[in-house]
């Protein structure tokens, strides 16, 4: 019997029983593709679970849809990280979207996802999608005032994603947005990765005027409690705008009730970031 454990802290972890394991090496990280009994296929980078067939819809819907609904007319979207393709798939559900750029540092993640995770990666070959295999930090140096929405779908702030959780990078994101543009970033687990969470949200607050954090329940992420942070300088992200668009998205987790109460945080989480 094979079991895999992700050590989420020194003292706790997530353990799953595995039918089959495949290992790939890239210049950036160790890539594992596990076929698990409970969660279907699971993508693991440097020992950390990135996505699983069974619960991926929660993360990808909650990263993509709130910002795309709040934006009056999202046409040009950038996803940084997200080489599995799940966020791109959700973005393309919005009819106004004309162009999606995906900037993923590791081409091997895209290759493995296309081969073994077809239900997640199936929109990566869509004609509206352009893929850049580059470091997101460098990529943004050349883009100014171009995107309506930028989604940061990054691995943990260690290894290749480290610099992309800092103020200097959030400033580049702001410069790459058009007027009225919106950022949403995955900002880690408030419960088990408290310092990563606090630091990411507080750095975003240093750069943007309107900042709101929201949560989703994601079974295979640390403590099951995951956070996302939305930011904009000129859009009031706290208004429940464009709700009539939600029904057309064919989602399984995100819905109008979640949208209305999006930024309602448990008290201990609010206290960490105020
Ligand atoms: N849902 C995931 C999570 O929260 O763990 C994120 C999934 S996605 C697979 C993360 C991707 O970010 C990885 O494929 C990784 O290669 C990519 N990444 C890390 N650092 C990056 C960088 N500097 N530029 C672009 N992509 C990066």
UniProtKB/TrEMBL annotation:
Pathway: Amine and polyamine biosynthesis; spermidine biosynthesis; spermidine from putrescine: step 1/1
Binding site for spermidine: 60, 84
Domain PABS as annotated: residue spans: 1-233
Catalysis: reaction(s): S-adenosyl 3-(methylsulfanyl)propylamine + putrescine = S-methyl-5'-thioadenosine + spermidine + H(+)
Keywords noted in UniProt: Polyamine biosynthesis, Spermidine biosynthesis, Transferase
UniProt-annotated catalytic positions: 153 (proton acceptor)
An individual GO BP term: spermidine biosynthetic process
The keyword Isomerase is annotated on this UniProt entry: no
Coiled coil segments of this chain: none
Enzyme Commission number, as recorded: 2.5.1.16
GO MF annotation list: spermidine synthase activity
Binding, S-methyl-5'-thioadenosine: 29, 104, 135-136, 160
InterPro entries: PABS, PABS_CS, SAM-dependent_MTases_sf, Spermi_synthase, Spermidine_synt_N, Spermidine_synt_N_sf
Origin superkingdom: Bacteria
Family: Belongs to the spermidine/spermine synthase family.
NCBIfam families according to UniProt: MFS_SpdSyn, PRK00811.1, speE
Protein name: Polyamine aminopropyltransferase
Designated gene of the protein: speE
């Amino acid at each position: 019997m094979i079991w895999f454990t992700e050590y989420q802290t020194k003292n706790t972890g997530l353990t799953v029983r595995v039918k089959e394991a495949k290992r790939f090496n890239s210049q950036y990280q160790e890539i594992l593709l596990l076929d698990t009994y409970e969660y279907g296929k699971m993508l693991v980078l440097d020992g950390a679970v990135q996505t699983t067939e069974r619960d991926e819809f929660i993360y990808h819907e909650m990263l993509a849809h709130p910002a795309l609904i709040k934006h009056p007319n999202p046409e040009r979207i950038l996803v940084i990280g997200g080489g599995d393709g799940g966020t791109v798939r959700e973005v393309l559900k919005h009819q106004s979207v004309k162009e999606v750029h995906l900037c993923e540092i590791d081409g091997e993640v895209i290759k493995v996802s296309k081969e073994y995770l077809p239900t997640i990666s199936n929109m990566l070959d869509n004609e509206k999608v352009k893929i850049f295999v580059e470091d997101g930090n460098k990529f943004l140096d050349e883009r100014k005032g171009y995107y309506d929405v930028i989604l940061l779908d990054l691995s943990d702030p260690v290894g290749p994603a480290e610099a992309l959780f800092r103020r200097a990078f959030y400033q580049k994101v702001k410069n790459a947005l058009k007027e009225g543009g919106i950022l949403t970033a995955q900002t880690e687990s408030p419960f088990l990765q408290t310092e990563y969470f606090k630091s990411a949200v507080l750095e975003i607050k240093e750069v943007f005027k309107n900042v709101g954090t929201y949560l989703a329940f994601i079974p295979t992420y640390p403590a099951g409690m995951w956070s996302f942070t939305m930011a904009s300088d000129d859009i009031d992200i706290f208004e429940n705008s464009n709700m009539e668009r939600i029904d057309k998205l064919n989602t399984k987790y995100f819905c109008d009730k979640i949208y209305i109460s999006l930024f309602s945080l448990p008290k201990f989480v609010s206290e960490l970031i105020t």
